Structures are given as structure tokens and as C-alpha cells.
Amino acid sequence: MTNFMFKMLEKEGVPTHLVEEISDRETIVKKVSIVPLEVIIRNVAAGSFSKRMGVEEGKQLLCPILEFSYKNDDLGDPFINDYYALALGIATQEEIDTIAKYAFKVNEFMVKFFKGLNIDLIDFKIEFGKTADGTIILADEISPDTCRFWDSTTHEKLDKDRFRRDMGGVEEAYQEIMKRLMGE
Fold this sequence. Notes:
alpha+beta; 7-stranded antiparallel β-sheet; two-stranded antiparallel ribbon; about 35% helix
């Protein structure tokens, strides 16, 4: 799924680390150093946002929300803002601006694309890397592990929450996403 999405995002002007898919399990990517920011875009209240803000899950947000977490497992990937990132030397203002621009572009494209598959893009987490010359590009993955996808009609969860909430049917949900992506 990641390679499929990255190819489309490249066409939309979002540079990615994808070079070539060589098999179902192997992909050649550009070498990057990951910017230690997890970039989260939220379109609908869900998950930790709903708990943290006391907003009912499923409530459509008035505009997309951009959040940053400091990518540090030992600290539990704490929520930070631009000023933390600047003060800690995690990213420059130019890098933060580029990341935000690309994150919103990814969101705009994916919301429309998945809507066409009768899927609502609730939220997602992406990561960016820097190439040797310092260029910021989309890296890591886009999948049901990093996105919340709900069926637009039934609101059935087709993502990581099936596992996190012990709902069962994880594999079937992921297969459903792929079937719709491939137009089956």
C-alpha cells in the first residue's frame, strides 16, 4: 500500500523516498535521516485526541489539525509544538514549514482519494526524512497501521484500531482496504 500511495503522492508533487518496488516484500528507497518528528493530521476526532480533548469520537473537525510528536520511544513520543522542535534542534523553521506544507498536501489528496473508495480518512501519522543534501521528503509508510480508515457508509473501522481495541478481523479489514485500492 505504501508504494502505491507514494507513487500517487509523487505525481501530486510530494517527494518521497520511493525509488523502485522490486517485489511484494522488497523496495528500494532513497537513504534519508529521519527527522525525529511524528507528523499527525486529524480530520475527525478519534483515539487519543478524543480522550485528551473530551471530544466524542467521530465528530468531524472544522479543519484538519496538524500535530507533532517527538519521535523518541524512551519518552513515549511526547506531543510537542514548533517551538520545542526549534529549541531542541529537532528541525529548523524552514524544515517545519516544508513538513507542514507536504503533510497538508498529503491529507488533501488522501481525503479525496479514499472518499472515492467509500473510505473516510480519519487521521494518520507520517514521517519525513532528509536526504544527504538536506532535502525534506516523505519517508516511512502509509498503511492501515499508520492511518485510521472508516467505511464511509457503515463507519466500520478498517485499520489499526481493530487490533488495539481487540475487535478482531484485523487481517480482513486490511484486505478490504487493499481490495478497494486495487479496484476489486
